[in-house]
Amino acid sequence: MKIGLYFGTFNPIHIGHLIIANHFAEYSGLDQIWMVVTPHNPLKNKQALLDDYQRLQLVFLATEEYPKIKPSDIEFKLSQPNYTLNTLAHLQDKHPNYEFSLIMGEDNLNSLHKWKNHEVILQNHEIYVYPRISSELENSIYKNNPKIHIIDAPIVEISSTFIRENIKSKKNVRPLLPEKVWEYIDHNNLYKK
């Protein structure tokens, strides 16, 4: 089985994440998309994160009606900060018959050279890339790499930061979130402080 790993803090998960995950589930040749909730991205501030299990619950609520998209807490069990190479090695050991690939935006592809042991990741795993509005793929050092697959996915410019800031400002961001995610956030008064 071919599994696409879509890593993120998902703080919170929003419709943009689902649009991208569903597009890869339906059009990339991957059998399933695992939305890997990252407890701590080494390139992000951990203090701004909602509790790990609340973010996992939001991903579960957002994906429960999508049979090809699964939430994953695999990085909760690994030492922090989380490095993709370690997660991939752990998953390959746990599921030797699965083929794991990465899903990322082209902005992340352009910073791949900053990742721990990125050469090993590229040597052993395919990377599926979705576009951003400010395309920089023409200048990317990875554009001709046979392990990199640029997918003509919808361009979605919604950010979790925007959603958090606007919930705090008492703006209506309900259309940007799956219904059950919005209800959970509203019921638990998340992101309001």
TrEMBL record:
Keywords: ATP-binding, NAD, Nucleotide-binding, Nucleotidyltransferase, Pyridine nucleotide biosynthesis, Transferase. Its EC number is 2.7.7.18. Pfam families: CTP_transf_like. Pathway: Cofactor biosynthesis; NAD(+) biosynthesis; deamido-NAD(+) from nicotinate D-ribonucleotide: step 1/1. One of its GO terms (molecular function) is ATP binding. One of its GO terms (biological process) is NAD+ biosynthetic process. It catalyses: nicotinate beta-D-ribonucleotide + ATP + H(+) = deamido-NAD(+) + diphosphate. It is an enzyme of class 2 (transferase). Residues 5-165 form the Cytidyltransferase-like domain. Gene3D superfamilies: HUPs. Belongs to the NadD family. NCBIfam families: nicotinate (nicotinamide) nucleotide adenylyltransferase. Catalyzes the reversible adenylation of nicotinate mononucleotide (NaMN) to nicotinic acid adenine dinucleotide (NaAD). This is Probable nicotinate-nucleotide adenylyltransferase.
